[in-house]
């Protein structure tokens, strides 16, 4: 039987909260925002049908506080909670407590969160579904000589990973036997500290792989569909910076095999809702399962752009008990989409998270451009939250059109008052690696070094430009000054990039 939600609470903040609020609006569902004091003036708080202030100053007391969020949900009389990504989105206890409160968790069942939240039990499901996994050792870690023999057999370099790890935490590279013990201890310690679980396993470290993931969508009636793949190999410190769909580097046979493997795995896990099956792919197009992200991904807009399917609305439909009314063959790839993650980080200072006040903001909205952002002039950017500020997405009939649009968007997007990575994003998309579509998970590091040394040698006027905005007393600079700084910036940056057209 299908139910119909009247009101949904969004257990999240910023751009993803806005994304879900907008989906609710289109479905005539009231939205409830929650916010901590720092977010009181945020756009998502203003746009929600209702908003509730959370008590507490630290994230664990606010956005991670299950009891408090459920109390608000109860008070607001919501039917369901959408957790977004991050925070409580993959927390099985939260999903379970929602059920106990009679509130639908918009995501997979708690059992699926438990099974797939642990990389080792997810690998076991992959084995069962005959999906290849990275060669390695998944048993209890022995001591001494026996451990060394296992590592020798896998071959160096290898990775030690925390079974419960995520976001690059609990992962350690081992290049030789002497580093193994310490890597195990650190991965165990991080697994325990961040995820409450010290189980670790060992994996072969593939050199220069690509990270390609498959979006899946499943309902509670046993149907599982794939929405094709996303290429996410532009990574810094194992975290994604630019994503695109479809992948420019795989054959249609590999695409089909990857997508079928993802569907098999999701079926074996009795999965429902939206999810992502992540793989790494070697230079021979051999792919290996990495993990399942049991939630909406940051990069979901590129998939929405090329399939025309609204993933948030589909998640809501599935949570309402609806049967997805399409066939796999109805889902077609159309065009090409690219997403750049705009981060508050300081290129002058090893890309450390930056803080400040948004002085001037101009987000160019035009055909083929989607900006998922929660930025507003006067907004304080604080380092307590994730440094991702916005997602800039372009879509075109071909990859080249999407790329050209992205280049123009990065050039015209104006954000003053806070240090950010737009120039670096521009540099990345203009590199030969990205332009050719032949890149892997280690492509960004050398480009980063080139970017930094070029900036140092050219003494870019950007820092002066950013500082002008930072020190502007009102936090805002006049249109004339802005135009002048933008023009000089544009000229300088084009000159700067022209050196690197052939990188
Ligand atoms: P997390 O859950 O912490 O994000 P993942 O297992 O998803 O960790 O891996 C994150 C990234 O680390 C991958 O996208 C890839 O770049 C790299 N990586 C993970 N496992 C391997 C491996 N076995 N060989 C090479 N790179 C890997």
Structure characterization notes:
This protein has helices at 14-26, 43-47, 66-76, 92-100, 110-117, 119-128, 144-154, 180-195, 252-268, 300-307, 311-319, 399-412, 422-429, 432-436, 444-458, 462-471, 479-498, and strands at 7-10, 30-35, 50-53, 80-82, 104-105, 136-137, 158-166, 169-174, 200-204, 210-218, 224-236, 239-245, 273-281, 287-293, 336-343, 345-346, 352-353, 356-357, 360-362, 369-373, 380-381, 388-396, 414-416. The protein is of the alpha+beta class and 503 residues long. The chain has 4 domains: 7-106, Rossmann fold; 107-133 and 207-334, ATP-grasp fold, B domain (D-amino Acid Aminotransferase, Chain A, domain 1); 135-204, Dna Ligase, domain 1 (2-Layer Sandwich); 336-503, ATP-grasp fold, B domain (D-amino Acid Aminotransferase, Chain A, domain 1, 2-Layer Sandwich). The protein has an 8-stranded antiparallel β-sheet, with helices on both faces. The chain has a 5-stranded parallel β-sheet with strand order 3-2-1-4-5, sandwiched between helices. Strands 6-9-7-8 form a 4-stranded antiparallel β-sheet. The longest helix has 20 residues, at 479-498. The radius of gyration is 23 Å and the shape is globular. The termini are far apart. 48% of the residues are buried. Residues 461-503 have low confidence and may be disordered. It binds adenosine-5'-diphosphate. Adenosine-5'-diphosphate binds at residues 134, 159, 165-168, 171, 203-206, 209, 211, 235, 238, 278, 280, 290-291, 441.
């Amino acid at each position: 039987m299908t139910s119909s939600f009247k009101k949904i609470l969004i257990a999240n903040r910023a751009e993803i909260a806005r994304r879900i609020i907008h989906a609710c609006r289109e479905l005539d569902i009231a939205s409830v925002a929650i916010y901590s004091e720092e977010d009181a003036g945020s756009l998502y708080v203003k746009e929600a049908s209702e908003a509730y202030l959370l008590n507490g100053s630290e994230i664990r007391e606010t956005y991670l506080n299950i009891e408090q969020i459920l109390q608000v949900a109860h008070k607001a009389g919501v039917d369901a909670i959408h957790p977004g990504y991050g925070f409580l989105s993959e927390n099985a206890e939260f999903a379970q407590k929602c059920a106990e409160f009679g509130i639908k968790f918009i995501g997979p069942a708690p059992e699926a969160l438990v099974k797939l939240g642990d990389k080792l039990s997810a690998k076991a499901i992959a084995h069962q579904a005959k999906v290849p996994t990275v060669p390695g050792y998944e048993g209890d870690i022995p001591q001494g000589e026996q451990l060394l023999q296992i590592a020798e057999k896998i071959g160096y370099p290898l990775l030690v990973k925390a079974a419960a790890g995520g976001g690059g935490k609990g992962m350690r590279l081992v290049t030789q036997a002497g580093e193994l013990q310490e890597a195990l201890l650190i991965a165990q310690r991080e697994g325990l500290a961040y995820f409450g679980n010290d189980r670790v396993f060992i994996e072969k470290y593939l050199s220069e792989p690509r990270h390609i993931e498959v979006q899946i969508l499943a309902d509670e009636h046993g149907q599982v569909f794939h929405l094709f793949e996303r290429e996410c190999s532009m990574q810094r410190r194992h975290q994604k910076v630019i994503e695109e769909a479809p992948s420019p580097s795989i054959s249609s046979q590999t695409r089909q095999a990857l997508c079928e493997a993802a569907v098999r795995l999701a079926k074996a896990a009795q999965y429902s809702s939206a999810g992502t099956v992540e793989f790494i792919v070697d230079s021979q197009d051999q792919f290996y399962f990495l993990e399942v992200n049991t939630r909406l991904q940051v990069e979901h807009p590129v998939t929405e752009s090329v399939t025309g399917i609204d993933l948030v609305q589909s998640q809501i439909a599935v949570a309402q008990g609806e049967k997805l009314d399409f066939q796999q063959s109805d889902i077609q790839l159309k065009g090409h989409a690219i997403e750049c993650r705009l981060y508050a980080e300081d290129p002058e200072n090893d890309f450390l998270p930056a803080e400040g006040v948004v002085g001037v903001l101009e987000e160019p909205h035009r055909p083929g451009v989607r900006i998922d952002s929660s930025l507003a002039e006067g907004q304080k950017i604080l380092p307590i939250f994730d440094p991702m500020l916005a997602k800039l997405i372009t879509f075109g009939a071909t990859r080249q059109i999407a790329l050209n649009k992205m280049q123009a968007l990065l050039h015209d997007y104006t954000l003053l008052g806070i240090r950010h990575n737009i120039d670096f994003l521009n540099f990345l998309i203009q590199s030969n690696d990205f332009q050719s579509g032949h890149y892997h998970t280690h492509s960004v590091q050398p480009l980063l070094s080139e970017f930094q040394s070029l900036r140092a040698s050219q003494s870019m006027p950007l820092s002066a430009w950013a500082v002008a905005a930072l020190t502007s007393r009102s936090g805002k600079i006049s249109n004339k000054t802005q135009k002048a700084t933008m023009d000089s910036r544009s000229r300088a940056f084009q000159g700067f990039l022209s050196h690197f057209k052939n990188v």
